[in-house]
Specification:
The structure is a single chain. This protein is an alpha+beta fold and about 625 residues long. It has three domains: about 1-275; about 370-510, no CATH class; about 530-610, Sandwich (Immunoglobulin-like), CATH 2.60.40. The chain contains 13 helices and eleven strands. It has helices at about 1-10, 20-30, 35-75, 80-130, 135-175, 175-185, 200-205, 210-370, 375-385, 395-400, 430-440, 450-460, 590-595, and strands at about 425, 475-480, 505-510, 530-535, 540-545, 555, 560-570, 570-575, 585, 600-605, 610. The strands form three sheets. Strands 6, 7, 8, 10 and 11 form a five-stranded antiparallel β-sheet that branches. A three-stranded mixed β-sheet has the order 1-3-2, with no helix packed on it. Strand 4 and strand 5 form a beta hairpin. The longest helix is centred in the middle third of the chain and has 159 residues, at about 210-370. The radius of gyration is 73 Å and the shape is rod-shaped.
Length: about 625
């Protein structure tokens, strides 16, 4: 490409040094972006071709004119003066007319060229207004080069026309009428010039010149004509070179336009791809922002959950402390009850010894007197089925009925008086406590020796008073005697199932405190659906159940639930300190115990005891 540009620059002397092939391509590429500019350039090329054709015709006309002049000079013709004068006048008049027509045609062409130049200037102004740069200067140089070539062609045409006119005027003096008419016909319709007025005085002066002068001038004009023909050939050749260069550059520029169009299309495709990627990145960025906001929200919820967990842990710690304190109070109460039981056992032994002494004394008295009264026989018969027991005064039993005693008693015989129903509500009860309740004696008045009628009424033969020395009593025990019968379902009660039916004459044992409405709180309900299943891996056992409450602050049977206790064959193994827990994993150290045991049970824990089975 650089070699082609250098060749073009060397072949066109009017082009500046900085106007290389690539700059011309860029300049004309800018022109081809406008269809109107391309049309104007094509029109200028056509005009340039027409001018070249006119120059060629001028050369042919000049050659024919020279041949005609030689014929006129070599062939003298004798003519009369009057006819020659008329011929000269007619020839001059016709030549003036032809020259006027040709001058008007040339002026019209000049106007067209000026109009085209004006349009080129307007297009050039549009291009310079759109974008200023070095290629605009190159376009100016190219336009200037075209105008100079056109002016040069016009100047050559005018010089040739003037030369031919002078030669024809000189040859008209010595030529015949026929030769003058031939010369006029040859030159008239084809040779253009710009001279629009001819003076007949100049023609008359040319006729009066001599033949030597005409020959000298003819040779001189021939030489000038040859020089002009040579210059016309050079200009025509240069015009052809310029046309070929312009065509070559035009083809090159079209190729570059195609390449630039392809590059533009690829750039548009890349731009669309980048736009799509940008939209995708914006969506990803929006998603990341949403994720960050969600993460912040989760962190805030996590902090709130941690605070709630800390509060629950503090509450559980407080409950554990309260449970430990209640356990200590319970142990103190149990120790107090054990001391009271030991005192009662001592009193029972002393009463037994006293009773045996009285029996021996009664036997001695019977042996001495030999008489047996009805009272003593009754006493003897009533003494025989009695087991060794303590004699409890009636006043002490009444104190127990008022609720001041802390030991529970229960009947273990099979008589009718021991079959009375005993209804109770416990605050702290377990299976071991219920067993001790069944084995403990019932609170009843023990008659003294001299009150046989009361013994018959209470039916002492069916009462077994055997206290349990190792039993653990509740923290608060109250014993009541029902004076009237009461059925809650007979009255207008909203919740009759929460009230205890009473039978007149039976003892009611109450564990716990009474609330302000006169209700006693009992033990919670036991959990349901207890199952023992193998865990997710070997060596792990899962014990599951249905919790009695789904609320961390929930209650069952009027008492607050604190957790659950797991028993294996009646022995407590572990505790779960959660009211809503539904399962627990058995550790490896305790697994063997559960594998050997026959029964696994779960009981509900509360501040008032555990649920029964």
């Amino acid at each position: 490409e650089e070699t082609q540009g250098n060749g073009v620059e060397a072949s066109i002397p009017g082009i500046p040094r900085g106007w290389t092939g690539s700059s011309t391509a860029r300049a004309l590429c800018q022109l081809y972006y406008f269809p109107e500019t391309e049309e104007k350039v094509k029109h200028l090329k056509r005009k340039n071709a027409e001018l070249a054709l006119i120059a060629k015709r001028l050369e042919e006309r000049a050659r024919k004119l020279q041949e005609a002049n030689l014929k006129v000079v070599n062939a003298p013709v004798a003519m009369k003066g009057s006819s020659l004068e008329l011929c000269k006048k007619a020839c001059a008049h016709q030549r003036a007319k032809d020259l006027t027509e040709q001058a008007s045609a040339l002026l019209a062409k000049d106007k067209q060229i000026d109009a085209l130049q004006q349009e080129c200037r307007e297009l050039q102004a549009k291009l310079t207004a759109g974008k200023e740069g070095p290629h605009c200067l190159n376009l100016l140089d190219f336009d200037h080069l075209l105008r100079e070539s056109q002016k040069e062609v016009l100047r050559l045409q005018r010089q040739i026309a003037l030369k031919n006119f002078k030669e024809s005027r000189q040859s008209s003096k010595t030529g015949s009428k026929s030769s003058s008419s031939i010369a006029a016909n040859c030159l008239g319709p084809s040779v253009p010039t710009l001279d629009t007025s001819i003076n007949y005085s100049s023609l008359s002066k040319g006729v009066q010149l001599g033949e030597p002068t005409l020959e000298f001038e003819l040779r001189k004009k021939r030489k000038k004509c040859e020089n002009l023909e040579h210059e016309v050939r050079k200009k025509h050749k240069r015009c052809k070179e310029l046309v070929s260069i312009v065509e070559f550059e035009n083809a090159d520029l079209k190729l570059q336009v195609v390449l630039v169009t392809k590059e533009r299309d690829s750039a548009l495709q890349k731009s669309q791809g980048l736009q799509t990627k940008l939209e995708n990145l914006e969506q990803v960025l929006k998603h990341m922002r949403d994720v960050a906001e969600r993460r912040q929200q989760l962190e805030a919820e996590h902090e709130e959950a941690q605070l709630a967990l800390q509060e629950k842990q503090e509450e559980v710690r407080w409950l554990q402390q309260a449970q430990a304190e209640a356990k200590r109070e319970h142990e103190g109460a149990v120790q107090l009850l054990e001391a009271q039981v030991r005192d009662l056992e001592d009193q029972c032994r002393s009463h037994i010894e006293q009773f045996s002494l009285l029996s021996q004394e009664l036997k001695r008295f019977q042996l001495q007197t030999g008489k047996t009264g009805p009272l003593t026989s009754t006493l003897v018969t009533s003494e025989l089925p009695l087991m060794p027991c303590c004699s409890i005064p009636q006043s002490q039993c009444r104190q127990w009925e008022k609720g001041n005693c802390c030991q529970k008693w229960m009947s273990s015989g099979a008589a009718a008086t021991s079959q009375k129903q005993v209804k109770r509500l416990e605050s702290q009860s377990s299976s071991s406590k219920s067993e001790s309740m069944q084995n403990s004696p019932k609170s009843c008045p023990t008659p003294e020796v001299d009150t046989a009628s009361e013994m018959e009424e209470l039916d002492v033969d069916s009462i077994s008073l055997i206290p349990e020395s190792g039993s653990q009593g509740p923290a608060n025990l109250q014993v009541f005697l029902a004076r009237y019968s009461y059925n809650p379902f007979d009255g207008p009660n909203e919740n009759p199932e929460s009230e205890l039916p009473l039978t007149a004459g039976e003892y009611i044992y109450i564990y716990g405190d009474m609330d302000e409405d006169g209700f006693f709180e009992g033990t919670p309900d036991a959990p349901l659906d207890v199952q023992a299943e193998p865990g997710p891996s070997a060596g792990i056992l899962v014990i599951s159940w249905l919790p009695v409450t789904i609320d961390a602050e929930g209650s069952s049977n009027g008492v607050r639930v604190t957790g659950y206790a797991v028993y294996a064959d009646g022995q407590k193994v572990m505790e779960v300190a959660s009211p809503t827990a539904g399962s627990v994993l058995v550790e490896l150290s305790q697994l063997q115990m559960f594998q050997v045991c026959r029964e696994v049970s779960v009981r509900t824990m509360s501040l008032y005891g555990e649920s029964s089975l």
